[in-house]
Amino acid sequence: MSIWEYANPVKFIRTTDRVLPWISVLAFASLAIGLIWGFFFTPDDFRQGSTVKIIYLHVPSALMAINAWLMMLVASLIWIVRRHHVSALAARAAAPVGAAMTIIGLATGAIWGQPMWGTWWAWDPRLTSFLILFLFYLGYMALWEAIEDDDTAADLTSILCLVGSVFALLSRYAVNFWNQGLHQGASVMRAGAIAGDTEERVSNVFFLPLMVCILGFVLLFIALVFLRTQTEIRARRTRALIARERQT
Amino acid sequence: MIALLKRDLALAIRAGGGFGLGLAFFLIVTVLVPFGVGADTGLLSRIAPGILWVGALLACLLSLDRILALDWEDGSLDLLATAPLPMEGIVSIKALAHWITTGLPLVAAAPVLGVLLNLPGPGYLWLIVSLALGTPALSVIGTFGAALTVGLKRGGLLMSLLVLPLYVPTLIFGAEVARRGAEGLAVQTPLLMLAGISFGVTALLPFASAAVLRINLR
Predict the structure, then answer these.
(1) Which residues contact A97 (CB under 8 A, 6 or more apart)?
(2) Residues in chain B within 8 Å Cβ distance of A162
(3) Residues of A in contact with B158 (CB under 8 A)
(4) What are phi and psi of B145, to 5 degrees?
(5) Which domain holds residue A147?
(6) What chain A residue is nearest to B174 in terms of C-alpha separation?
(7) Which of B165, B169, B215 sits opposite A139 (nearest CB)?
(8) In this predicted structure, what is the pLDDT of residue A184?
(9) Across residues A48-59, what is the average pLDDT?
(10) Does some domain include residue A3?
(11) From CA B113, how far away is CA B47, in angstroms rounded?
(12) Picking from A70-79, A153-162, A163-172, which range would have the lowest pLDDT averaged per residue?
């Protein structure tokens, strides 16, 4: 029993079919619990008022926007090294989801920034590098769409994904250069917080619903990627069947 | 390799168009900016380094599809691929030829256009230095983009979408060097970063471009 068994599309579809309902239900349950808990049952922040509650959408989506690209990177590497088609299709399936997460992160950030910073958009390092990440997603998806041959497209996009990761990282540090940050640093997973220093921690009142929301977003991402990968596999199989039909 | 470089250079010069086109585009972009933002010399001299860098970048981008597309169409790229020269060498030479025909003229023309934009005195040296250091990176990254889209019918727009995000770090550090130089600040840190990007990209990216090109020629 090894993880590579799931490189077999039939096995992959059979397994994901079995777990998909569970994951989806769990995702929606934790999202519903987390969001309702966050929006209605947490106190207002003493300085930010109720606007702080958008954090329950903003932080998880921003987190997943980056993790989606990481997942695509791993899937691309697996495709390059071991040439499992499911892996390439999973990378393809994850890209639009990641792009959507990026958009959600940017949009909620803008909505949050308007009352807090007095501006929808600032050319701040974090905001700018996120916008660039979004451009990378667009380019990646456009390249998949543009190439007709499936294997060629998978090869080219996986190399683009590798190169893109390096440059996305580089942009992330490059933009630090020309502007002061307006966006705060990481405050949820701070070193002091993990060590248990209560002074530096986000209060449990906010922290627990946030964790539930993050869990919900992770599960939602997994469910969507499974579903989209299944769709890609089935679409490819249909195309193969149609092609075979035409030959005979 | 040298024969290939000579051939590419001769083709670029004799075919016309590609050689001067980038320069003319650079000139036009620079001339358009004062029309767009107004002819206030104070404002112009402040944004001049950035405008010149963006203009140079766009001029570079415009000529990228010529790197490989012509050779792809007439089949000489297939011949080159079967030649004893490794693919990495071919793409490096292609990038070098692109830099000599596009990047170098841009570097030479930039100070002249700087006069048009009222660039402050100390900025000229650093503008030239930053462009001379940065444009090779633009050519090498651009060759990667050209290799990715070489087989596509309408690859131009897609290539811009792929290449422009990759250009971001180079542009940031290059424009930062030019801006700090123009304002008389210390330029060492962005200059070192720009040099690092340029050399790192030249060393590593040809491998990716070659891999991509091999896939496309398959």
Answers:
(1) A68, A221, A224, A225, A228
(2) 208
(3) 139, 142-143, 146
(4) -60, -40
(5) 9-247
(6) A174
(7) B165
(8) 65
(9) 78
(10) no
(11) 13
(12) A163-172
pTM to 2 decimal places: 0.86
CB of B149 within 8 A of CB of A154?
A: no
CA dist B214 to A79, A132, A152, B24, Å?
Answer: 17, 28, 10, 34
- Alpha carbons A214 and A226: distance in angstroms, whole number: 18
Can you say whether residue B75 is alpha, beta or left, with left for phi > 0 and alpha for psi between -120 and 50 degrees?
A: left
**Percentage of chain A with pLDDT > 90?**
28
pLDDT for B19? 63
Q: Is residue A4 part of a domain?
A: no
Whether A177 is in a domain gets the answer yes
* pLDDT digit string, tens, across residues A87-112: 889 999 999 999 999 999 999 888 88
A156 touches chain B (CB under 8 A): yes
CB atoms B215 and A143 under 8 Å: no
What pLDDT was estimated at residue B203?
92
- Looking up residue A80, the CATH number of its domain turns out to be 1.20.120
ipTM: 0.84
Number of domains chain A is built from: 1
| Residue A49 confidence (pLDDT) | 67
Kindly state whether residue A64 falls inside one of the protein's structural domains.
Answer: yes
> Which structural domain range is residue B9 located in?
2-217
The predicted structure's pLDDT at residue B142: 92
Are A164 and B166 within 8 A, CB to CB? yes
User: Across the interface, do A146 and B155 touch by the CB < 8 Å criterion?
Assistant: yes
CA atoms within 13 A on the CB side of A122: 19
Residue A141 makes CB contacts below 8 A (sequence gap 6+) with A95, A96, A99
Interchain contact B192–A (C-beta under 8 A): no
Number of domains in chain B: 1
Cα–Cα distance measured from residue A8 to residue A10, given in angstroms and rounded to the nearest whole number? 6
Residues of chain B with pLDDT below 50 are none
Tokens of A36: 């309702």
